[in-house]
Specification:
The chain has 185 residues and is an alpha+beta fold. Helix content is 41%, strand content 26%. The chain has 6 helices and 6 strands, in the order H-H-E-H-E-E-H-E-E-E-H-H. It is elongated, with a radius of gyration of 23 Å.
């Protein structure tokens, strides 16, 4: 079946359903179909959507973050280093990156993420494979508290900007659909 035949098949079945409803409902369905066609044409004019696995795509890092925060205990470089290696191995991350420029966004690979966190910044970024979603950007953040107990924290996160463009169900589960609905395809 060709693409046009497949399209005609869908349109034909949609038209049969439209014919089976009363006049008021038929008008509403036709308005909905016209709006869907306009939205599809606009998306085609805008080009491909931003890739959720592109570290340098600024929109990926917008909105809220879906986080897993781990309190590691009193400040300890060895424990923090071991904790940082856990997601690297468990998630199959081959390379961590550090952001070297904000506008435009640019990332460069790092050999030792612990060194980056300790000396230059507290975030490193990577691309991970997430079930259902596929390849998506993620971040790892270390917080080294300086007050009385000097606690270390490690936070693995998926940025909301990338999550909301994956799938309507994913956005609803992770981020709350009502506030992100307009961004979804």
């Amino acid at each position: 079946m060709t693409a046009s035949a497949a399209g005609q098949g869908w349109c034909g079945s949609a038209m049969l359903k439209i014919l089976a409803v009363d006049d008021a409902d038929r008008e509403e369905v036709l308005r909905w179909l016209e709006e869907a066609e306009r939205e599809q044409a606009l998306r085609a004019l805008q080009g491909p959507p931003p890739r959720i696995d592109d570290l340098d795509e600024a929109d990926n890092w917008s909105d809220a973050f879906y986080e897993l925060a781990l309190e590691l205990g009193p400040r300890d470089d060895a424990r923090l280093g071991a904790a940082m290696s856990a997601p690297t191995h468990a998630l199959g991350i081959e390379t961590w990156f550090t952001q070297t420029s904000w506008r435009p966004a640019r990332h460069e690979p790092v050999d030792n993420p612990m060194e980056v966190i300790r000396e230059r910044a507290n975030h490193v970024h990577a691309v991970v494979q997430v079930p259902i979603v596929g390849a998506i950007v993620c971040g790892l953040l270390a917080i080294r508290e300086d007050h009385d107990d000097r606690t270390d924290w490690l936070i693995l996160y998926l940025p909301g900007g990338a999550l909301v463009r994956t799938h309507r169900l994913i956005a609803e589960l992770f981020m709350g659909l009502e506030s992100y609905g307009p961004h979804l395809a």
